Amino acid sequence: MKVPFIYHPIYSELQLPERHRYPIHKYKMLYQWALAHGARPDQFIQPTPMNWSQVALAHSSNYINKLITNQFDKKEWRKVGFPWSTQLLTRTLTSAGGTFETVKTALDKRIAIHFSGGYHHAHHDWGSGFCLINDLAMSAVLATKAKPNLKILIFDTDVHQGDGTATLLRDHENIFTCSIHGERNFPFTKVDSDLDVALPKGTTDGAYLDAVKHTLHKVTKDFKPDLILYDAGVDIYRRDDLGHLDVSIEGIFSRDYFVLDYAKQNNISLAAVIGGGYQRNLSRLILAHAQLLRASHQVWSD
Ligand SMILES: [Zn+2]
User: Fold this and answer.
1) Is pLDDT at 302 greater than 80 in this prediction?
2) Please, are residues 88 and 14 in contact by the beta-carbon 8 Å criterion?
3) How many A from CA of 150 to the centre of ligand 1?
4) Is CATH 3.40.800.20 the classification given to domain 5-300?
5) Ranges for the Histone deacetylase domain (predicted)?
6) In this structure, is the dihedral angle defined by the CA atoms of residues 2, 34, 22 and 248, taken in order, positive or negative?
7) What pLDDT digit, counting tens, does each position of 221-265 carry?
8) CA 235–ligand 1 middle distance (angstroms)
9) Å from CA of 159 to ligand 1 middle
């Protein structure tokens, strides 16, 4: 089976200041990598943007209003890390729509991968760390609204803790939040997820993969999800500028392969987002994100 990929060219179309830390071109480059490595154009689904009433399922109307009309103060924008533009709003809504499309597609086809997503630092009424609205939380809430018995596990392996997701979903019984992250890294004030695993700086492949495997086993046995919403952030990579872990490229592949294969073997639908990854060297960054695509091909190519 060809794995469904969700992508929109707008992901890389945001104008940012020179030398901005955010690797805005990585989305398009990953798309091009996929095509160069055997993905078919008809494998891609172009998502439609979320609308603001869907965003209101997770964020306050005051916050949404300030965001739309560019009313954040300087401090609030510094926390977010992007300059305001209408392009930023459209891109943000489209990326969130992409994650929801990925969840819907995964429920139908058992697997889908979003070439964006994982804005897990967006809270109810404030944004931070390049995250304005929380695509993971909104998509999970929308999916469980459509199917009230659906159980979703948010399995967040981005190196940064999913603090926004944890706060937004605290009272949702059918959504379980789990974050495996670097202990001494942003956000420095952690918020309790349903399950957190904090790893020390310098964690290497063996200990990292043990933590991922053990945690996924435990959580799926206890919670029995129908769908895993997987944040496959690659800022765990040893060459990442912000990560502080010591995981190799093979380690990233092994993590992604394990999660995708485990979901398939256990009949759990898997919706993946690529999450964070920060390197000035974009080709090396793309190679790190590409491990998710390689893993999906190996797990689903029969
Ligand atoms: Zn991150």
Assistant:
1) no
2) yes
3) 27
4) yes
5) 24-289
6) positive
7) 999 999 999 999 999 999 999 999 999 999 999 999 999 999 999
8) 6
9) 5
